[in-house]
TrEMBL record:
PHP domain: residues covered: 4-151
Pfam family, one: PHP
Protein name, UniProt field: PHP domain-containing protein
Amino acid sequence: MKIDFHIHVKLSKKTNFEIEHFNSMINEAKAHGLDAITLTEHFNTHRFEDVYGTLDKMYPCNNHYYNVDGFKLFTGMEVDVAEGGHILVSGPKAKLLEVRAVLEDHLTADRFIGLERLFELCHPRGLMVIGGHPYRESNHLYHIDKELLKRFDAFDLNGKDLHEIGIQENIAKVLTLGAELGVPVIAGSDAHQMFQVGCVYNQFDGDFETVAELKEAIRSGAYKRVITPSLDLQVRAANYVKKLLKKKVEVVV
């Protein structure tokens, strides 16, 4: 199985969910040979409920993933925490949406939930918790107490950061952090736009039906991270097109 653990299906937080944009992301993932992605739309994106509400009407879901014409779309979200980082949460849809309901009171920067409290909500529900882009200047995690960081199921080797920080520098930083804390590192493109899809992904020998199975495979190290030679070009192109599109898109409230 080839899977990307960090991918968005909206152009930005402020835009509406559009099925045409969603289809472009899925089709691009398939074109790059991916078998699955984890949907990690921002928990406080404009009309979050439209994302899962629309997918519920269009595709069968077994509470673990949507079957998009044979392509697996595992359920998840990206959560801002009070410490300043971004956290990727994934797992059974019903449990995920229970956590999202609690987070309804924590949607703005002055009310973001603390990381320890987020762990307390997620782990008992069987959700996987990944520390997103731990060295991103604007939303880093490395400064947080190490005992708390050790509770992550994985850290995110992020496609955008590999481009902006530098591939070798970012790899060294994230892998060193993971090794020091005993936390695995997985790859996520952080794509919001089709050109960035496939710039990084993870390759597993087996096929998986649940996030719990994926988490166990990650813990055992039964996977490899893949960084494509075209990563820098893909991220540059995606950033450029995203800026152009955001100028043209209006939010319909």
